[in-house]
Design brief:
single chain, about 290 residues, seven-stranded mixed beta sheet, six-stranded mixed beta sheet, 18 strands, about 30% strand, elongated, binds zinc ion
């Protein structure tokens, strides 16, 4: 599952900040006929609409309109709430672009549902949201939204089964994090797969490593040019687990840091710091002096 999100953030239709944290994901439909995710973000961009959502999904793309850390106006009501806890303040709103058939009935394209499932699964992993907290707008206010999932609950059910499967075991969550090795900062792609962290091999060039890959033996290698710290290969000197996803190589972060020294990870703040053994010895000596 690869999630790619582009942003066109609204300037007017959100409340800044989110003191309550994120507990729910609320699924909606746009009630349009063949609209695009991007066009929706344009609509909400700089005119006050009194409504919004965090994400819009069509069959080709995902566009973000409101940052996760801000409140979008997607499931509020001046009427009665049918959910005891879910509100705009503690939820992320995901809108699926819709189509109308010749009888005027709304439906979703299969690709749109696939893409939305990937996004929802990603958000569930990211914010530790349990499956029962992924709900429809209908479940909050009884509005007929998303109509295709309200009028045909079996479809909603299969969407839920799908996202549950996607969040179990074999999931991949990709994000860009900051990494620091021996005081040198750079950015790496991090993948969370089966609860293990992997980082993109090629990004380690940013820390002065020499990165290689031997196609014949399918062995990634990593060499610290300056200090000859470590050579990493699946067979030879040190063993690390690696993944190849879409032609890019990723290596286990924990195993890399065990070879290099010690590390502290703060994924909440997207930061990993590795102190190599050499640096640790240096600072111990410095402490002794
Ligand atoms: Zn809705």
């Amino acid at each position: 599952m690869n999630i790619s999100v582009r942003k066109n953030l609204t300037l007017k239709n959100f409340s800044s900040g989110r003191p309550a944290g994120i507990k729910y994901i609320v699924v909606h439909y746009t009630a349009n006929d063949g609209d695009t995710a991007y066009a929706n973000t344009r609509y909400f961009k700089d005119v006050y609409r009194g409504a919004s959502a965090h994400y819009f999904v069509d069959e080709k793309s995902i566009w973000q309109c409101v940052e996760d850390g801000d409140i979008a106006w997607h499931c509020g009501t001046s009427g009665k709430y049918f959910h005891s806890d879910c509100r705009n303040t503690n939820s992320v709103g995901v809108e699926l672009c819709s189509k109308k058939d010749k009888n005027g009935k709304f439906y979703f394209k299969e690709e749109t549902v696939n893409r939305a499932a990937g996004l929802v699964a990603y958000l569930m992993n990211r914010y530790k949201i349990p499956p029962e907290n992924v709900i429809r707008h209908y479940d909050v206010t009884h509005k007929n939204c998303p109509a295709p999932f309200v009028e045909e609950p079996a479809r909603w059910n299969s969407f839920k089964i799908r996202i549950n499967e996607m969040t179990k075991g074999d999931d991949e969550v990709t994000e860009r994090i900051k990494m620091e090795i021996n005081g040198k900062s750079f950015s790496v792609d991090r993948i969370l797969k089966n609860d293990k962290n992997y980082i993109a091999l090629s990004d380690l060039r940013g820390a002065g490593f020499e990165v290689g890959y031997e196609a014949k033996t399918k062995t990634p290698s990593l060499k610290n040019k300056a200090e000859e710290l470590a050579v990493i290969a699946d067979g030879e000197l040190k063993k690390v687990h690696s993944l190849n996803i879409d032609g890019y190589n990723y290596i286990r972060l924990r195993e890399l840091s065990d070879i290099l020294g010690s590390f502290t990870a703060d994924f909440e703040n997207n930061t990993v710091v590795i102190r190599t053994k050499k640096q640790a010895i240096l600072s111990e000596n410095e402490a002794n002096n």
